[in-house]
Design brief:
Layout: H1 4-17, H2 19-29, E1 35-38, E2 53-63, E3 79-93, H3 97-106, H4 108-117, E4 126-134, E5 142-156
Parallel strand pairs: 1-2
Antiparallel strand pairs: 2-3, 3-5, 4-5
Length: 158
């Protein structure tokens, strides 16, 4: 059995633990990302020396159908299925607006591939890159790319 915290912890571990992903992000940013911060930390409170870094925060969740049924709960309420989000931000600096824009445009690919290689972070039933939002250079020279990683898991009655 897994839960929302296990999911977020599993994602946090993958961000610096999957060698293929680590290399792909380092190639895009020109530096490795070794710091993963947990919790919704305002960008203004992250010391500039911490960049590049990831910030991981638990997102929203909702009841969802199980893989084998159209119901989120079983008869007798023996288990319930959920879809939950983990919010991931990648924060770095790039003085060149053109290269930063190119980097932001390339980031969805390594994130999606990370989850294809590791579809069960934290022991959940499955995870995928659900959506993303680049900051469009609004915070230049600080760059912020936000992704929503969605996943399914089941909670059983004890």
């Amino acid at each position: 059995m897994s839960d929302a915290n296990d999911f977020a912890s599993g994602i946090a571990a993958l961000l610096t633990g999957d060698a293929t992903f680590v290399a792909a992000i380092a190639a895009l940013l020109g530096a490795p990302v070794t710091t993963v911060l947990r919790g919704n930390i305002p960008v203004s409170q992250i010391p500039a020396g911490s960049y590049p870094c990831f910030v991981v925060e638990q997102g929203d969740g909702k009841a969802a159908p199980t893989a084998n049924t159209m119901d989120s709960q079983t008869i007798g309420l023996a288990m319930s299925s959920f879809e939950s989000d983990v919010l991931v931000s990648l924060i770095w600096t790039d003085q060149n607006p053109a290269t930063a824009a190119i980097t932001r445009g390339k980031l969805p690919t390594p994130f999606a591939q990370l989850l294809m290689r590791n579809p069960q972070p934290g022991g959940i039933d499955g995870a995928w890159l659900g959506e993303w939002q680049p900051d469009r250079g609004v915070n230049h020279p600080t760059q912020i790319w936000r992704g929503v990683i969605a996943g399914n898991y089941t909670i059983t009655k004890t």
